Amino acid sequence: MRRLVIDTNIYIDWFNAGRHEEILFAREGIKHLSAVVLMELRAGAFGVRDRRLVQRVESAFAKAGRILLPSRAVFVEAGEVLRQLQVKRGFHLETSHSIVNDVLIALSARSIGATVVTQNERHYRAIESIRAFQLVVVDSP
Prior knowledge:
By secondary structure, the chain is α/β, with parallel strands linked by helices. 58% of the residues lie in helices and 13% in strands. Helix 5 packs across helix 6 and helix 6 (98-111) crosses helix 7 (121-130). The mean pLDDT is 95.
């Protein structure tokens, strides 16, 4: 069965507008929660309601044993990919901070053979041009 790692923007759309339930609750595919996505969700959860939602998502994935942590090898590879993104694709880490997180998400997913599901086509296509991984881009609303 296909493994999926859902990007932060998909969860945010679900929290805020109930979008993407067909992705988040689809029976096909085994979903994993990236620890990097969890960090981003917690960082942006300012309201009590938002913090509760994030906690419920985290608890469900933790209970299932499906929180995906980047390994040392993923961090090492991420450094190489980030260097190449700067040299070959013109990214500037000081102005594109989120690319670091996206590289960690992509490479962590790759390490378990999972597909990343995102709306952020620009970053993930750039990463894909450096390191192949499975990607599904969902249209933004």
